[in-house]
Specification:
The chain has 320 residues and is α+β, with helices and mostly antiparallel strands. The chain has ten helices and 13 strands.
Amino acid sequence: MTTIGEFELIEQFFGGQFASYGVNLGIGDDCALLTVPPEKQLAVSIDTLIGGSHFPRNADPELIAERALRVSISDLAAMGADPMWITLALTIPSAESSWLSGFSRGLFRAAEEFNVSLVGGDTTRGPLAITLQVHGSVSPDKSMLRSNARVGDLVFVTGTVGDGAAALAVIKKELEVGKSAFSYFMGRYYTPKILVRQAQALATVSRCAIDVSDGLLADLGHICKASGVGAVIEAERLPLSDPLRKLCDPDTALNWALAGGDDYQLCFTVPPAKIARLEEIQEQHQIEFTAIGEIVRGDECVCLSGGRVVVPEKTGYKHF
């Protein structure tokens, strides 16, 4: 095992990346100096992922980095923002060169996909933890806010839900799957597709969105609370992948879809008057989404199946 010092670590593994728009000064000084595009707002979000809690400690470091950046960028997508820069605070038990090489490779591969620059950060010794702050820009009239849902809006979700929870069950060896299904679920967990450009297209008809990280019911509940409304979704409408349907019984699949989390799909609302335009956007940008319910008066977010309220075994991921 080869270890190196802090400054050598930064120079060797995290320096020298290409600079995206607005980077006047990046890694190597006390602060980064950045310029936000004209007429845009700065969108900022920060996430911490802990080894053993948010990902397996012994996972491939390339995949750990890919997952960490993708789930952080997901917050920018939910706002309709254009990703620009990231900062990284990395806590590691030791500065092992082989681990750092894999981690930086995965990080920069994902960074290139989203055209973001690493402009600063920090490294410390301790239990494995990754904190990523992501920065983006968004036009004030294109921001999708949790507080903008209105009674009568239809509720949509992109892609499929429940796969993230199923993937975690596979990782924990609670379920056994074949080679093809294993590959599918590991992809959904470590390299979820983050819909940045698609979200920006949706922002022309939607003013309210959230990424599904804690669980569909919990995250839609955040929208309801912020907007002062309720929501009703139909269990039969929830989009489930074929691998998920084949993996488990319908009740388990429904529980994972409603409360499993880790899907990083977009849940968004659209007023009825803009549905025709939404359908045009769906065709133009090849976006997969499903209408799953409606925003209603009240303060409850519920799922119905055959007219009865479905109560999942858990209500979504909780940090405490």
